[in-house]
């Protein structure tokens, strides 16, 4: 045998800088904690503190990661020392860090809210490990730079979300989870099909490598790939016409689960659409923009109409989630920098505001013993909930000073600049419908005198409104001082439109 | 070889989708299994099929010479098989529990979470 083999052509020989390890912390930490909690499943009083502490640490880690990405550019950590594209590179740019940071904060708020609202049986069946592992999958999808790895993270959060959805096993939950499970499984299978084709055509799965190779290919069936990815991720994002699973399932579980799902899970689909279509297939996205605009317009108008037709407030919020996804997708359909920035900002706003709104719906329903608009009323005697309801109504409807205003302005302005007349009209019509929906919600629950005094008098033990208040405060902050969020979203959009820095960060000097 | 394989994959997809269009959940689940296997075969074919030469190097060689089998699709498929198998197991249990609780596996009758004939919200107060 010859002497020592020269491995510099295949392996990374230098150590990963200490700061770049942050890329893996938001995934490794909750995996370890989640697995430990599974082992400690008999010690119920340990579950909540460990889970909340882990989620708090993950939030800190994602914030530190965001600061690092913001100041010193895309962070890359390649696994197993194999040089990219062979090793799996976790590639964190501003977009990924921004989404991971917001999602982790929302997960923390939900974790804290779960401490009081999750009963002992659900804890025994592993509510907190499921929460941690769902958060692992979500963070993994945001931070990875490898498309097959992204598929694996999708499955991780999907299967843990089944656990969260079904724990408690009421009839409605079983029904909802079955539909959610089957349809989402088909969605991720489509994702896998697209990835199989992608590998067959390009011979690589590393996103930065795909960015380099796509323009060199002539006549490859890239449009098929882009369309398959669009279908798969639209399913995850609950866009029309593949949104049926969301209103079938999201109102059935414990309200904290609904809050977490409604806030975070659809945005993973939106993130994946941004990542794959804008970064990897920009030419194909331009070809698909007409279809995208239709999808976006119908999604937001149908979502708002669906919300208008619901008398159960939790189902109403589910349709509002769908309507919001339409606004994000219209950013994608227009495709210019400001439009994408608007869509990204809207996704951040939607994560925070809709999670808070689900929690609020839980408080209101707990208090009145019903979630039906026919029964609710008399909330004006509780100033705290009334205030939160008012602020969130403004945020979600996109009225000043709520957080939904600025991203909607950005998207509408970009749509007008790009001559998308009817898309603009659709955004405004859906906003009007949302205002009517939420205005009626406010009118009936707050101003109308209480209908069911007897139920009110009994009341359930009230849980701590801290997480809901914190999220509402963040949403209000986004509305009152949007400048940093606009800047962050703009830089995230620029990073997608000009991937040179992304590719450079992964491959460095090598070609 | 790949051409024959793609015909087979197409057949699997057709069978899977046909089963998934059924109203009975058990058939839908079987459809999902066939569909998942179609994807596995698809990835296998996408990695180009070559079975004679294993990707093994002699000790004194620095890189592979000539055409060898591609080991990566197998790793991808293995991951996908594990995932789809666990999903199938979970969904099977879930279907059985739903059948126990609700008493039907007909998707048309499965309307617990979204009951039929729900009233519209009040028009005023």
From TrEMBL, chain A:
Subcellular location(s) per record: Cell membrane; Membrane
Residue ranges constituting the NADH:quinone oxidoreductase/Mrp antiporter transmembrane domain according to the UniProt record: 145-434
Keyword hit for Kinase: no
Keyword Repeat: no
Topology relative to the membrane: Multi-pass membrane protein
Sorted UniProt keywords: Cell membrane, Membrane, Transmembrane, Transmembrane helix
Alphabetized GO MF terms: NADH dehydrogenase (ubiquinone) activity
TM segment ranges: 21-40, 52-70, 90-115, 127-144, 150-168, 180-202, 222-246, 258-281, 287-309, 316-334, 340-361, 373-400, 420-443
One biological process term in Gene Ontology: ATP synthesis coupled electron transport
One Pfam family this sequence matches: Proton_antipo_M
Major place of residence: membrane
GO cellular component, one term: plasma membrane
Recorded family membership: Belongs to the CPA3 antiporters (TC 2.A.63) subunit D family.
Protein name per its UniProtKB record: Cation:proton antiporter
Organism listed in the record: Tianweitania populi
Upper lineage: Bacteria, Pseudomonadati, Pseudomonadota, Alphaproteobacteria, Hyphomicrobiales
Gene (name only): mnhD
């Amino acid at each position: 045998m010859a002497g020592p083999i020269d491995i510099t052509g295949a392996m990374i020989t230098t150590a990963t800088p200490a700061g770049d390890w942050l890329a893996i912390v938001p995934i490794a930490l909750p995996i370890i904690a989640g697995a430990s909690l599974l082992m400690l499943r008999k010690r119920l009083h340990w579950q909540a503190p460990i889970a909340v502490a882990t989620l708090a640490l993950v939030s800190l880690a994602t914030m530190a990661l965001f600061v690092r990405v913001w100041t010193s550019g895309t962070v890359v950590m390649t696994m197993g020392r194999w040089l990219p594209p062979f090793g799996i590179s976790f590639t964190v740019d501003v977009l990924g860090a921004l989404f991971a940071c917001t999602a982790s904060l929302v997960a923390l708020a939900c974790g804290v809210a779960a401490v009081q609202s999750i009963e002992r049986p659900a804890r025994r069946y592993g509510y907190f490990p499921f929460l941690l592992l769902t958060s692992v999958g979500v963070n993994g999808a945001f931070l990875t730079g490898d498309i097959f790895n992204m598929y694996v993270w999708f499955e991780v959060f999907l299967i843990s979300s089944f656990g969260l959805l079904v724990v408690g096993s009421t009839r409605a939950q079983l029904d909802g989870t079955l539909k959610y499970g089957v349809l989402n499984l088909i969605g991720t299978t489509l994702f896998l099909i697209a990835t199989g084709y992608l590998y067959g055509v390009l011979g690589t799965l590393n996103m930065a490598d795909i960015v380099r190779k796509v323009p060199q290919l002539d006549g490859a069936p890239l449009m098929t790939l882009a369309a398959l990815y669009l279908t798969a991720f639209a399913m995850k994002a609950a866009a029309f016409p593949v949104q049926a699973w969301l209103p079938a399932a999201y109102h059935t579980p414990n309200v904290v689960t609904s809050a977490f799902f409604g806030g975070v899970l659809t945005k993973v689909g939106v993130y994946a659409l941004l990542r794959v279509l804008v970064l990897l297939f920009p030419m194909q996205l331009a070809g698909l923009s007409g279809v995208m605009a239709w999808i976006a317009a119908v999604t937001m108008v149908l979502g708002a109409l669906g919300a208008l037709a619901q008398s159960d407030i939790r189902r109403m919020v589910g349709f509002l989630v769908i309507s919001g996804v339409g606004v994000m997708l219209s950013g994608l359909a227009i495709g210019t920098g400001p439009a994408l920035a608007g869509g990204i900002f809207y996704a951040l706003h939607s994560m925070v505001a809709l999670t808070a709104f689900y929690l609020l719906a839980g408080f209101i329903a707990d208090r009145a013993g019903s979630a039906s608009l026919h029964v609710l009323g008399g909330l004006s005697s509780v100033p705290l909930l009334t205030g939160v309801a008012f602020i969130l109504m403004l945020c979600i409807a996109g009225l000043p000073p709520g957080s939904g205003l600025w991203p909607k302005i950005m998207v509408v302005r970009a749509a007008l600049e790009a001559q998308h007349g009817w898309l603009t009209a659709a955004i405004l019509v859906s906003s009007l419908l949302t205002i009517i929906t939420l205005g009626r919600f406010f009118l009936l629950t707050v101003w109308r005198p209480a209908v069911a005094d007897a139920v009110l008098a009994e009341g359930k033990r009230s849980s701590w409104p801290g997480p809901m208040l914190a999220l509402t405060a963040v949403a209000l902050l986004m509305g009152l001082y949007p400048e940093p969020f606009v800047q962050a979203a703009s830089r995230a959009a620029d990073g997608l439109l000009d991937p040179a820095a992304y590719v450079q960060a992964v491959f460095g000097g090598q070609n | 070889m790949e051409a024959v394989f793609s015909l087979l994959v197409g057949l699997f997809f057709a069978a899977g989708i046909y089963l998934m269009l059924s109203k009975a959940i058990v058939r839908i689940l079987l459809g999902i299994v066939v569909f998942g296997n179609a994807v596995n075969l698809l990835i296998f074919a996408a990695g180009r099929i070559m079975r004679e030469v294993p990707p093994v190097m002699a000790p004194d060689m620095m890189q592979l010479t000539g055409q060898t089998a591609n080991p990566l699709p197998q790793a991808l498929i293995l991951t996908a098989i594990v995932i789809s198998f666990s999903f199938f197991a979970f969904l099977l249990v879930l279907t059985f529990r739903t059948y126990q609780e609700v008493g039907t596996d007909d998707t048309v009758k499965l309307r617990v979470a979204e009951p039929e004939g729900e009233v519209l919200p009040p028009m005023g107060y």
